């Protein structure tokens, strides 16, 4: 290697430049200044002097570079986002602080902690290699369409019409069921509710996949429907805020370095409720390799409810998921492009069956997220047809304590009944109920 030779040649030159800088400081010191016209001309040094591009204004010996903030400085202090002060608290009337008991709750949003230089980006066990490969690809070739002016680009009207039709179809699915009784709506759309008395979170969605390897049980629409059983009409950050509003406690996401540490947090039971369709509107069996094709769904009186774990099957043992989900809580990360804070689980990792550091709910054991090592798949025989509207019910389970927990108005271990799933624009009717 030639590096050692270059290093030894560069050291004398740096030493010479340093000595010349010191000589200049001494020459212009107090009491030694001379006018430019009276200054004696010194002979040029024998060694090669720095080039014109290397010359710079002499710096004062007292000048110091700004110090980085220490742990005790104000900019280094970061409040804990899981502390009670940063979480919405219910008041005596059963709503979040600041809400009137007679007024609907406003939209709850998670607030990112104050930005620090140490904020990590969301990662999983194999994300570092993937991000490095992605950076290399971006530096080698420009994006397709870089040479096209933005004003000259127009989307095909047929594509736009198809997108709008899909949006309308999804909205019809979202509006299949009416609001659960005694629950407060969060946000503008009737897709997410909290029941402060029963300590439940309700979120609507639809069946998006029945075959194939799984990384998630549920994801927000428009994210990871190709590897989730259910897609829901709410962001992960909104569901997180709803859980905080009913008193759930988040923990920590999974960690891999220096060793594997499973995610922690309060146990959250997940129930799936749905109604069978009227025979005339039953979704046609679809090829699961194709995207879901939402269509009009007319619900019947037949009500079903199932523990969501019964919809997830271990591919090796062919048994249903046994461990419950824990409220890991995901994380915030800063986008270097726009310097904005983002909630990581909004990208799709809402209720996971593979470990992700960005997961909102995760399984508390080692479950690989590598494509060739995924553990779970849908329990197809127990899942209704794709496109079936469903309502997820998230229920925090009591935290084990030394003393018995006080009794709750609604038993958190029992399945919800058909009262939580009224049909839109019609009164609930007596119907047969099946529980898986």
Q: What is the element layout, followed by pairings?
A:
Layout: H1 3-27, H2 127-140, H3 157-174, E1 184-185, E2 192-195, E3 200-207, E4 216-220, E5 230-232, H4 236-245, E6 267-277, E7 299-307, E8 312-314, E9 325-327, E10 332-335, E11 340-343, E12 351-352, E13 361-362, E14 376-378, E15 389-396, E16 433-435
Parallel strand pairs: 4-5, 7-16
Antiparallel strand pairs: 1-2, 2-3, 3-5, 3-15, 4-12, 6-7, 6-9, 6-15, 8-14, 9-13, 10-11
Question: Can you tag this structure with a few keywords?
Answer:
SLA1 homology domain-containing protein; signal; YdjY-like; two-stranded antiparallel sheet; single chain; disordered C terminus; twelve-stranded mixed sheet; 436 residues; alpha+beta; 4 helices
Overview of the structural elements:
With 436 residues, the protein is an alpha+beta fold. The chain has a domain at 180-278 and 297-420. It has four helices and 16 strands. It has helices at 3-27, 127-140, 157-174, 236-245, and strands spanning 184-185, 192-195, 200-207, 216-220, 230-232, 267-277, 299-307, 312-314, 325-327, 332-335, 340-343, 351-352, 361-362, 376-378, 389-396, 433-435. Strands 1, 2, 3, 4, 5, 6, 7, 9, 12, 13, 15 and 16 form a twelve-stranded mixed beta sheet that branches. A hairpin with a 4-residue loop joins strand 10 and strand 11 (340-343). The longest helix has 25 residues, at 3-27.
């Amino acid at each position: 290697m030639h590096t050692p030779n270059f290093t030894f040649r560069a050291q004398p030159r740096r030493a010479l430049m340093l000595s010349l800088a010191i000589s200049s400081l001494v020459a212009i010191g107090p009491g030694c200044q001379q006018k430019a016209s009276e200054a004696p001309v010194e002979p040029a040094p024998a060694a090669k002097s720095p080039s014109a591009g290397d010359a710079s204004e002499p710096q004062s010996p007292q000048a110091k570079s700004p110090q980085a903030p220490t742990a005790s400085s104000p900019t280094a202090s970061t409040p804990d986002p899981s502390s009670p002060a940063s979480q919405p608290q219910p008041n005596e009337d059963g709503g979040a602080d600041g809400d009137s008991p007679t007024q609907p709750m406003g939209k709850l949003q998670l607030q990112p902690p104050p930005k620090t230089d140490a904020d990590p980006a969301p990662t999983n066990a194999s994300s570092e290699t993937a991000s490095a490969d992605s950076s290399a690809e971006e530096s080698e070739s420009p994006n397709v369409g870089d040479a096209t002016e933005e004003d000259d680009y127009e989307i095909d009207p047929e594509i736009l019409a198809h997108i709008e039709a899909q949006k309308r179809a999804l909205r019809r699915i979202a509006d299949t069921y009416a609001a659960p009784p005694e629950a407060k709506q969060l946000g503008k759309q009737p897709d997410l509710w909290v029941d402060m008395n029963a300590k439940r979170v309700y979120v609507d969605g639809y069946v998006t996949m029945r075959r194939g390897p799984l990384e998630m049980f549920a994801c927000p629409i428009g994210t990871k429907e190709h590897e989730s059983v259910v897609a829901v009409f709410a962001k992960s950050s909104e569901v997180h805020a709803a859980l905080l509003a009913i008193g759930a406690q988040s923990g920590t996401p999974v960690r891999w370095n220096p060793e594997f540490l499973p995610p922690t947090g309060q146990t959250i039971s997940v129930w799936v409720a749905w109604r069978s369709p009227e025979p005339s509107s039953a979704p046609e069996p679809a090829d699961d390799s194709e995207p879901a094709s939402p269509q009009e769904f007319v619900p019947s009186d037949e009500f079903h409810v199932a523990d969501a774990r019964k919809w997830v099957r271990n591919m090796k043992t062919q048994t249903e998921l046994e461990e419950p989900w824990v409220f890991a809580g995901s994380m915030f990360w800063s986008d270097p492009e726009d310097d904005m804070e983002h909630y990581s689980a909004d990208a799709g990792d809402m209720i996971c069956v593979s470990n992700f550091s960005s997961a909102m709910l995760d399984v508390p054991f080692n479950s690989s997220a590598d494509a060739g090592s995924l553990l779970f798949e849908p329990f197809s025989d127990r899942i209704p047809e794709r496109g079936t509207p469903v309502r997820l019910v998230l229920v925090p389970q009591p935290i084990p304590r030394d003393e018995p927990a006080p009794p709750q108005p609604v038993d958190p271990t029992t399945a919800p009944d058909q009262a939580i799933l009224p049909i839109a624009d019609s009164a609930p009717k007596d119907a047969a109920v099946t529980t898986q």
